[in-house]
């Protein structure tokens, strides 16, 4: 995030995550003794406060977005791990060419190897954290689809009026879109870091990048098949044709 002397103009502004969820409002900023912006304080809806590094903030006009720590950490690992590999390879070539002593090679090799193992261990922990978040998203998608089915049933038997039905439908639809986007994003991030640990440097083409762009579910048709690998069979609901589905 580029430093900006007018960041305090963001105080009171709504802050969201990358998927459009409201996280709260910008309450204040923490600055270093030299005057550099260091962290942001966020007042959540329940009155609790969060403190996050300003490096995770993205400003777009009056919009303030908090980038996930998982993605930020993944980018760091994807930069540092290949860099140490390249340095270690260069060190070996210098040793093979007799440009450095064997003792110096062994010492530096040990330093590089220790740093690399530490990064790989931390990266593996991050992958495990992402696996848990992906599972959370899958479960949330499953629950939202069940909520949608129950909404349709109650509306069909007349327990919910049209206005309440459309309001609830829009809420569930929006949340399905967001959690699908988050799950796809986490899966791509997970694959990227896993490939780095395997010694590969993935280059996502446009088709892969577009996987994170999840289309908004149609009001005519909502399907749990948009959530792959769900623990239970997909639930399909035809909104207009519900009387013909047997639900």
How would you describe this protein?
With 247 residues, the protein is an alpha+beta fold. The chain has 3 domains: 7-67, PRC-barrel domain (SH3 type barrels), CATH 2.30.30.240; 70-121; 132-203 and 217-245. It is 51% helix and 16% strand. It contains 5 helices and 8 strands; from the N terminus they run ββββββααααββα. It has helices at 69-96, 102-156, 162-197, 206-209, 242-245; strands at 14-17, 22-31, 37-43, 49-53, 57-60, 63-66, 221-223, 236-238. The strands form 2 sheets. Strands 4-3-2-1-6-5 form a 6-stranded mixed beta sheet, with no helix packed on it. The protein has a two-stranded antiparallel sheet with strand order 7-8. A hairpin with a 5-residue loop joins β2 and β3 (37-43). α1 (69-96) runs antiparallel to α2 (102-156), α1 (69-96) packs parallel to α3 (162-197) and α2 (102-156) runs antiparallel to α3 (162-197). The chain is elongated and about 85 Å long.
Secondary-structure content class: alpha+beta
The backbone outline, from C-alpha atoms, is elongated
Average pLDDT score: 82
Question: What is the string of SSEs from the N terminus onward?
Answer: EEEEEEHHHHEEH
Low-confidence stretches: 202-209, 211-247
Q: How many distinct helices?
A: 5
- End-to-end Cα distance, whole Å, is 51 Å
Short summary:
The protein is α+β, with helices and mostly antiparallel strands and 247 residues long. It has helices spanning 69-96, 102-156, 162-197, 206-209, 242-245; strands spanning 14-17, 22-31, 37-43, 49-53, 57-60, 63-66, 221-223, 236-238.
């Amino acid at each position: 995030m580029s430093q900006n002397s007018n960041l305090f103009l963001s105080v009171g502004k709504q802050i969201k995550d990358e998927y459009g969820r409201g996280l709260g409002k910008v309450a204040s900023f923490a600055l270093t003794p030299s005057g550099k912006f260091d962290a942001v304080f966020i007042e959540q809806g329940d009155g609790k406060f969060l403190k996050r590094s300003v490096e995770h903030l993205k400003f777009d006009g009056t919009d303030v977005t908090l980038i996930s720590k998982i993605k930020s950490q993944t980018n760091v690992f994807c930069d540092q791990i290949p860099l140490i590999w390249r340095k270690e390879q260069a060190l070996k070539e210098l040793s093979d060419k007799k440009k450095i002593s064997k003792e110096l090679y062994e010492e530096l090799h040990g330093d590089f190897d220790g740093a690399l193992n530490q990064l790989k261990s931390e990266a593996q922990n991050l992958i495990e954290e992402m696996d848990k978040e992906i599972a959370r998203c899958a479960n949330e998608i499953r629950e939202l689809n069940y909520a949608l089915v129950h909404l349709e049933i109650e509306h069909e038997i007349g327990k919910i009026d049209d206005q309440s039905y459309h309001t609830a439908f829009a809420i569930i639809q929006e949340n399905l879109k967001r959690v699908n986007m988050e799950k796809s994003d986490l899966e791509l991030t997970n694959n990227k870091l896993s490939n780095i640990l395997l010694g590969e440097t993935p280059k996502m083409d446009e088709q892969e990048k577009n996987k994170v762009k999840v289309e908004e579910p149609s009001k005519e048709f909502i399907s749990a098949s948009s959530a792959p690998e769900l623990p239970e069979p997909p639930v399909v609901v035809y909104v207009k044709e519900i009387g013909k589905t047997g639900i």
